[in-house]
Hints:
With 213 residues, the chain is mostly helical. The chain contains eight helices and no strands.
Amino acid sequence: MTNETNPLDPEGMLRDPNEHTPLEDIYAIITGCTLLAVGLVLMQAANIVTAGVAGIALLMSYVLPLGVGPLFFLISLPFLAFGGQVLGREYVIKTVVASGLIFGIAAVAQQAIHIADVHPAFAALAGGTCAGMGILALVRHNCGAGGITTLALYLHRTRGWSVGRFQLLVDTFIVGSALLAIPPERIGWSALSILAINMILIAWHKPGRYLGR
């Protein structure tokens, strides 16, 4: 079998149109981190727990004297080591940058946005949707949004598992653990927030659906 060449590019010098440029990666990472950080701040204002490492950070922020940003960054570190082994150096570099941005943007947002009162239903839906779209933007540009996403992407690439469905399963355990830190009536809103996040990934993160990389 002979290798076919593009008659318009016989030497293979043209860039793959499905490959993201560095500028596109930068813009997507900044946008994704901003959406994710704003979603976290909105949900924290309503005292609800959400998805993945972000949800663990939110849960711990209710019982520890640390903000959600620093906790998110610290919890993500061991998962980054795993990501470096199985997903490559580029993924780790992007994810480290993203984790730092989420930490910084969340810290700034907590000072810049003063929420006196927010209905938990709105916080769950709007905050969850913002966070879900942020995660989607990151994973489409080979970047993680925390430890659970790293593990989910590894299972997606090696075994074909759905990122959204796997995260939804993990988040169920996180919300169950939240009973130790938040009132039971908040659990329903927390479940709504993780559903808002992961339905975006279930609907729009599918093999072959998006060709950019």
